[in-house]
Amino acid sequence: MAKTMIGVVTSNTNPKTIVVTVTSHKTHPVYKKRYISSKKFMAHDETNQAKIGDKVVISEVRPVSASKRFKLDKVLEHASIRHEEGEES
User: Fold this and answer.
1) N or C: which end of the chain has fewer CB within 10 A?
2) Separation of alpha carbons 88 and 86, rounded Å
3) What are the chain's domains?
């Protein structure tokens, strides 16, 4: 069975490729303090449906390219505020 992860899209500048940041909580082995660890994964998005800030599910597949080992399964929730190109505030 393929490994699935939930994360947030942080970049979608390349065609058919998204960068997803997956965060997890870990416990330090000596001090027992919990901390947040995050890792970025490149995923294949065939239809370019994911936008920056969307919460998505990615699953492990055979290598699509040199750096892509995951594909977009579905978008769980869309970002509430869309990032507009060329907007200055």
Assistant:
1) C
2) 6
3) 4-12+21-77 (2.40.50.140)
Please state, as a whole number, how many other Cβ atoms lie within 10 Å of the Cβ of residue 22: 16
For residue 39, give the amino acid letter.
K
What DSSP state is assigned to residue 14?
Answer: S
The C-alpha R_g of the chain, in whole angstroms, comes to 15
**pTM across the whole model:** 0.83
Distance CA 65, CA 11 (A): 17
Nearest-angstrom CA–CA distance, 73 and 83: 22
57 Cβ partners below 8 Å, 6+ apart?
4, 5, 6, 72, 73, 74, 76
